[in-house]
Structures are given as structure tokens and as C-alpha cells.
From TrEMBL:
Stated name of the protein: Short-chain dehydrogenase/reductase SDR
GO biological process terms on file: monocarboxylic acid metabolic process
InterPro entries the record matches: KR_dom, NAD(P)-bd_dom_sf, Sc_DH/Rdtase_CS, SDR, SDR_fam
PANTHER family reported for this sequence: 3-OXOACYL-(ACYL-CARRIER-PROTEIN) REDUCTASE, 3-OXOACYL-[ACYL-CARRIER-PROTEIN] REDUCTASE FABG
Cross-referenced SUPFAM superfamilies: NAD(P)-binding Rossmann-fold domains
Similarity section: Belongs to the short-chain dehydrogenases/reductases (SDR) family.
A matching Pfam family: adh_short
Residue ranges occupied by any Ketoreductase domain in the UniProt entry: 35-218
Length: 285
């Protein structure tokens, strides 16, 4: 008489897939409540606006920059929103400081889930008048620093199967910029880095995107207006109008409007490898 075989009731592949999808859905629906974010260049302007917007969305936020008084002020604003916070004095041109950043943030808040590479500098000059030091400094801050900082944080994101990398590029990364060879080169490179890493990280729970603002109501715009007025003899109002003439909306973006794009990218797990314009329609592509 043949002995009946016992069947092992193992979960089917379909059931495993359903469970995986359910886990992904729960992670998406949970948003960024309690997630840890790091914003470089977080002491003022766009960085400050992003830090506060992420805090309002439920994230605990570390802000990094060179100016301690500015960092203290923004950190206090984040705390006033009821979120945990710390500030990290950071010179992004210093590779040793970049390498130490993951441990510094983890010690105070935990591992970083959302990395916003916002720190940047700007310089304008005809190529023949641009010295090597200016070129090297601009690429070190605007391109190399985001690459190195992202590389430092990726292992932890991969281990946990979750991460958001948001690089603040510029419309200068999509078009040419007269007298801006170094700046435009760095911002083009940052978008290329964003798209390439997005492909590497796509199956590891990490999205990588860029934001491309045009002129924004920050100190950089104020300085550009002053420079043009001084060089041309125009009034500051005339210089400002000249800068914004090509903008279909006829105005500069607010830092808070750029921050809204950052929150969207932090929340959405289905968007990766994109360069999102916040530019009033200046570049339609």
C-alpha cells in the first residue's frame, strides 16, 4: 500500500510578490513622518526653505552649512515645528568633512533617509578670464561635493532598502549660460550624475532626482542685480527687470516653491532620474 505524500504548503511566488507590493505600498503611504533628512546649504535661501518644508511634512532635519549662526537659527525653526533637529558645520569642499557626515548625523538623529545636496556657489566670467582656482573651486562645491556626499550615504540607504537623493541643480544644467562655463558645466554634470545613479539605485529602494530652479528670491539674485546695476549704470529695478525679462511668468520663484518640489520628490517613490524645473517656464523641455 502506497504511503500518501505530505504536501508542504509553502507560500507561492505570487503571495511573496503580493507581500512585497504591500510593503512598498505601506512605505509610500507612510510618507516621510519620522524620516531623517539632511540638507546641505541649509542656512538660508532655498536650503532653509527645504529644511522647513521637510520638517512640516514630518521629517527630522539636520542642516549643514559653513555659517554657524545661520544654522542655529534654522535649527531653532525646525525645532519649533516639533521635529528633532541638529546642525552640522560643514565645508563641502573639504573631503574629510564629507566623509565624516554620515556618522555625525546618525549619532544625533539616526541614519539619513533623505539627502538634499543643495550647497552651491556661482561665478561668472568669460572663459579666457576665468582662472584655474575659480574653476576648480566651483566644480568642487557644485559637482564633486554632491557626488562624494551621496557616495558616503548610499551604503546605509542600500542596507535599509530606502533612500531619497535630491540634487539641487539649475536651469543652467539644461541650457548654455553666457559667461557661466564653470557653473553650467557643473550643473550639467550634476544632472548626468543624477540620471546615472538613478539607474544604479532603482532596484535598491533609492530614488535620485534633481531640481532645476531658475532665478529665485535669494541672496544670489540680489547680488546679480547689484552687479548689473553697478556695471551698466542702470537702476536696480531696471537690472532686475532685465534679468527676469525672459521668464514667462515675469518673476523669480520663491524659495518655498522650490521646496515644494523637494517635498514631492521626498514623498514619491515612483519618480527617479528626473530633472524637475521650477523656473516659471523658462525651459520647456
Amino acid at each position: 500500500m502506497r504511503r500518501a505524500r505530505r504536501r508542504l504548503h509553502l507560500p507561492s511566488r505570487r503571495r511573496y510578490r503580493r507581500r512585497a507590493r504591500a510593503g512598498e505600498r505601506e512605505a509610500v503611504m507612510a510618507g516621510i513622518e519620522g524620516r531623517v533628512a539632511l540638507v546641505t546649504g541649509g542656512g538660508r535661501g532655498i536650503g532653509r526653505a527645504i529644511a522647513l518644508a521637510l520638517a512640516r511634512a514630518g521629517a527630522d532635519v539636520a542642516v549643514a552649512a559653513r555659517s554657524v549662526p545661520e544654522l542655529e537659527a534654522v535649527s531653532a525653526e525646525v525645532a519649533a515645528l516639533g521635529r528633532r533637529t541638529l546642525f552640522l558645520p560643514l565645508d563641502v569642499s573639504d573631503r574629510a568633512q564629507l566623509a565624516a557626515a554620515p556618522a555625525a548625523v546618525a549619532a544625533g538623529l539616526g541614519p539619513v533617509d533623505v539627502l538634499v545636496n543643495n550647497a552651491g556657489i556661482h561665478a561668472s566670467a568669460p572663459l579666457q578670464r576665468m582662472d584655474d582656482e575659480t574653476w576648480d573651486a566651483l566644480l568642487a562645491v557644485d559637482l564633486t561635493a554632491p557626488v562624494l556626499l551621496t557616495r558616503a550615504f548610499l551604503p546605509s540607504m542600500y542596507d535599509r532598502g530606502y533612500g531619497r537623493v535630491i540634487n539641487v541643480s539649475s536651469v543652467a544644467g539644461r541650457i548654455g549660460l553666457k559667461y557661466g562655463c564653470a557653473y553650467s558645466s557643473a550643473k550639467h554634470g550634476l544632472i548626468g550624475f543624477t540620471r546615472s545613479l538613478a539607474l544604479e539605485a532603482a532596484r535598491k529602494g533609492v530614488t535620485v532626482n534633481a531640481i532645476c530652479p531658475s532665478w529665485t528670491e535669494t541672496r544670489m539674485l540680489d547680488e546679480a542685480v547689484e552687479d548689473i546695476a553697478r556695471a551698466t549704470g542702470r537702476t536696480e529695478a531696471e537690472a532686475r527687470a532685465a534679468i527676469l525679462r525672459a521668464n514667462p511668468l515675469g518673476r523669480a520663484a520663491l524659495p518655498e516653491e522650490v521646496a515644494e518640489a523637494a517635498v514631492f520628490l521626498a514623498l514619491n517613490g515612483a519618480v527617479t532620474g528626473q530633472a524637475i524645473h521650477v523656473d516659471g517656464g523658462e525651459v520647456m523641455a
